């Protein structure tokens, strides 16, 4: 307590010293604001001259954190017009007036009633004024002054963060910057050393150091190895008062992690690996794994594997499993116990990424020997070929040999083989196979035009172990034989216009024909068209081969008449180019038709030309039927009068003749001749009836 009172007494003395300087005369160089007089005009018109007045003062100071029993005297206000008789009253206003700062209105003494903290507020602006005590009339204009709070070292340094985290590569050079820590002090940096900080390291030596003025942490030891120690804990102190005794301090913790660099090569834990593989294994099957250890992490620890030497380089391969960092050895080609029973490989493990800074630590790779033993297995038979293609002629007799398949047992036992056909691939049972020697034969003649290719599957199985089975596809091509004659490609029909003998022949073909052959192209075209030998000199038509697998049919004469013959059937012989050639006779129908003057087709109806000379047989039958019906109608009813009977007959024939006139207008003349007998009968029976008709 005595020490606190002594400190408070010292602070009061310091304040009084400041006050004495504040109230020093102007001649000592301190600011002396003064109020200059001015003239006033009285009521009676006389001019009063006011004498010069002024304050005697300067800036005031008060020390922060003062905790004495009495209020701290900040300073004293005094006007040079104050004669000490008590007629002047001092008034204080502004920031903290009446609460923090109070003034004795008689003496002008100002006291601070509360403990001040510079870090909360560094200064206060106040207004002072002297007035008449009785009238409160201002004797001087108000004047502003400042009370500054004097700083003491009452705030320790504080870091921006309680803890820091930083990384630095392992094996960094001495002096490599790691991180900068920063502390701040709330005290006044412009007054004394209260806010002057100095940094020092409390924990983390001898690995790290810190710059006293900047707070930059740096490495202090060379070749720090992450694989030996990865994480370090460092404690940094910041102390004010320039680091001298009595200064306040604060600390922070820094966790520094060494990041990895590729400074370690991969290393196999053993010199030889022993593995085995069955001869029944298929390519791509895993044989075994090797792993080289690399203490580095991340991409610095990535390892790739390669086969660099050995007699098994063609039969085995190695890939890298990047998840487990293992080298996976796989079968590349099938191995055979009976041919080779052991292989040797030299496998290399190398880093993927190499840091040039540490190339002297290399080489960053290692090798190991891998020995692989081949295990014997009971293997299925093997065909000498992966597939077979055989040929057989169509129409070959049953029992004709198509071809042979051959398989053998690859095992040392060399078991006998039996052959069979998969009947799912030979549903019609066209083929059979000798179970002992593998010869395939036909069971019936084959037709290439039905099926040109036949595909079957043949099994080969060991006699003593039917489960050991192999299969092979066999394609059988049916060879073509010229067993199909060519025929018309379509049902052709020709037309020719009837004409007289004097009309010249046309150079255009009546019809152009082509042929089709079911046989293969080797036994098909070129097609040859001709007339049969017995009508080679046909007087009506001829055939001209165009030598492009088509032919044209032409007329040899003119003057075709439908009345004489309206339909001609022309036989045409078509031969193919096979050996021996095949031929067939095809009949072409040619009709004689009526045409206009331009040769356009009008009608090919046979009745059309018969009506020119007389009625056709069909027309006569129709007319007779109508006559019978008309004659029979009156007998079915009551006897009519002769006039009515004749009128009925006459109308019936009129209708019949009208229908024929619609077919051919030239038939009108025939109608006139048919009417004459009826007119004669009517005239003889009853002239009156004739007149009515």
Blueprint (SSEs and pairs):
Layout: H1 2-22, E1 34-35, E2 39-41, E3 47-49, E4 53-54, E5 60-63, E6 72-76, E7 88-94, E8 101-103, E9 109-112, E10 123-132, E11 143-150, E12 158-159, E13 163-169, E14 177-180, E15 183-184, E16 198-203, E17 208-210, E18 216-219, E19 231-239, E20 249-259, E21 272-278, E22 286-290, E23 303-310, E24 316-321, E25 326-331, E26 342-351, E27 365-375, E28 382-383, E29 388-393, E30 401-404, E31 407-408, E32 417-421, E33 431-433, E34 439-442, E35 453-462, E36 469-479, E37 487-488, E38 493-497, E39 511-516, E40 528-530, E41 541-545, E42 550-555, E43 567-575, E44 583-595, E45 601-603, H2 607-610, H3 617-636, H4 642-663, H5 668-685, H6 687-692
Parallel strand pairs: 5-11, 13-20, 21-27, 29-36, 38-44
Antiparallel strand pairs: 1-4, 2-3, 6-9, 7-10, 8-9, 10-11, 12-15, 14-18, 16-19, 17-18, 19-20, 22-25, 23-26, 24-25, 26-27, 28-31, 30-34, 32-35, 33-34, 35-36, 37-39, 39-42, 40-43, 41-42, 43-44, 44-45
Q: Any overview of this molecule?
A:
- 24% of the residues are buried.
- The radius of gyration is 68 Å and the shape is elongated.
- With 693 residues, the chain is mostly beta strands.
- Strand 33 (431-433) and strand 34 (439-442) form a beta hairpin.
- The strands form 14 sheets. Strands 38, 40, 43, 44 and 45 form a five-stranded mixed β-sheet that branches. A four-stranded mixed β-sheet has the order 5-11-10-7. A four-stranded mixed β-sheet has the order 13-20-19-16, with no helix packed on it.
- It has five domains: 59-150, Sandwich (Immunoglobulin-like); 158-259, Immunoglobulin-like; 272-375, Immunoglobulin-like (Sandwich); 382-479, Immunoglobulin-like, CATH 2.60.40.60; 487-603, Cadherins (Immunoglobulin-like, Sandwich).
- The chain is 13% helix and 36% strand.
- Helix 3 runs antiparallel to helix 4 (642-663) and helix 4 (642-663) packs antiparallel against helix 5 (668-685).
- The protein starts with a helix and ends with a helix.
